[in-house]
């Protein structure tokens, strides 16, 4: 990225807002970074100023991992999502689960640690728990919820 990521007040007037762009030889300002096997669903028109939002989706047979949208923040784009082949998504494992189950991607887990009264939540994202399971020893209580996303 090549551009200023600051604005200043000069003699009572603000300089122009930062623009977000990925700059490569021969490109013009205002491009949205690409996502392999993905496409832009919704976006404001270029040039992209601070606060601009770009929403992504994945081709059929691919699953979006990460944030669904990116934002122009002070001249830089927030981290991009990834599109991963659905048949390549990893399952989550945990030695803390009573039966050492293998859990599918996008499964939400509500759990309680032994000796604690509060419940915690975690979701399986392509082979890792987010947030990480923090109990020591076995879990006292587990409830799984499968999350389905339907677009109309």
TrEMBL record:
Domain named Sushi: which ranges?
18-85
Which keywords does UniProt give here?
A: Disulfide bond, Signal, Sushi
Recorded hits in InterPro entries, A to Z, give: ComplSys_Reg/VirEntry_Med, Sushi/SCR/CCP_sf, Sushi_SCR_CCP_dom
List the CDD domains hit by this protein, alphabetically. CCP
Report the Pfam families cross-referenced here. Sushi
- Signal peptide residue numbers: none
Question: Which SMART domains does the UniProt record give?
Answer: CCP (SM00032)
The record's annotation in PANTHER family points to: COMPLEMENT FACTOR H (PTHR45785:SF7), COMPLEMENT FACTOR H-RELATED (PTHR45785)
Could you tell me what this protein is called?
Answer: Complement factor H-like
Q: Which organism is it from?
A: Acinonyx jubatus
Q: What is the lineage of its organism?
A: Eukaryota, Metazoa, Chordata, Craniata, Vertebrata
């Amino acid at each position: 990225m090549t551009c200023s990521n600051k604005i200043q007040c000069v003699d009572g007037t603000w300089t122009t807002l930062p623009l977000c762009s990925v700059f490569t030889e021969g490109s013009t300002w205002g491009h949205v970074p690409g996502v392999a096997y993905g496409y832009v669903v919704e976006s404001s028109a270029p040039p992209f100023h601070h606060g601009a939002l770009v929403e992504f989706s994945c081709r059929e047979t691919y699953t979006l991992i990460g944030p669904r949208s990116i934002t122009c923040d002070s001249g830089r784009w927030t981290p991009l999502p990834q599109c991963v082949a659905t048949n390549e998504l990893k399952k989550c494992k945990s030695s803390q689960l009573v039966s050492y189950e293998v859990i599918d991607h996008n499964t939400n887990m509500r759990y309680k640690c032994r000796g604690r009264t509060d419940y915690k939540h975690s979701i399986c994202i392509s082979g890792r728990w987010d947030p990480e399971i923090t109990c020591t020893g076995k879990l006292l209580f587990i409830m799984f919820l499968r999350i389905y996303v339907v677009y109309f």
